[in-house]
Amino acid sequence: MVTTHVRRGRYLDELVVGDVYSHRPGRTVTDTDNVLFTTLTMNTQSLHLDADYASRTEFGRVLVNSLFTMSTVVGLSVGDLTEGTTVANLGFSEIVFPAPVFIGDTLFAETEVVSVRESSSRRGQGVVEFEHRGLNQRGKLVCRARRTALMLAAPTG
After folding, report:
1. pLDDT, tens digit, 9 for 90 and up, residues 129-145
2. What 3-state class would DSSP assign to 94?
3. In the chain, where do the E strands start and end?
4. pLDDT of 2 higher than 90
């Protein structure tokens, strides 16, 4: 007999406070990624778009848009944690970017389950707080963000 397996996130009941998920594969950031994200979001900051300007800053080169970095770090977690099991994002907090990301850097992500509780108003659902951490190819922390999500409990019956 053949069993079909479908990739999905974790249900509320499967999330354990303190567990850390290491997400793979990583994602190498290209110039196209940065320019497209930056222009789509109307963030015309010269540090993200103008190589000549950026070359004369303390960084010496174009910086990757920090919101692209955060989005990618959170996105890397979806397959392991929330694909098909999340109801909604409730909010983000404590977002920090302790080191810059440059074109050609590879982002890796890990996520810690910070808190889990059943919803008092939504049966079969609960609230989970995740801490997403983005690391570059050298293992340096480049992004940390707390995310609160409404998650499904495992189906019964």
Report:
1. 999 999 999 999 999 99
2. strand
3. 20-28, 86-96, 106-118, 125-135, 141-152
4. no
Separation of alpha carbons 130 and 77, rounded Å: 10
pTM score, whole prediction: 0.93
AA letter at 152: L
Q: Count other C-beta atoms under 10 Å from residue 96's C-beta.
A: 13
SS3 label, residue 89: strand
Per-domain boundaries in the chain: 12-28+66-152
Q: Is 95 helix (H, G, I), strand (E, B) or coil?
A: strand
pLDDT by residue (tens digit) across 75-117? 999 999 999 999 999 999 999 999 999 999 999 999 999 999 9
Fold of 12-28+66-152: Thiol Ester Dehydrase; Chain A (3.10.129)
> Between helices 31-40 and 66-81, what is the axis angle to 10°?
100
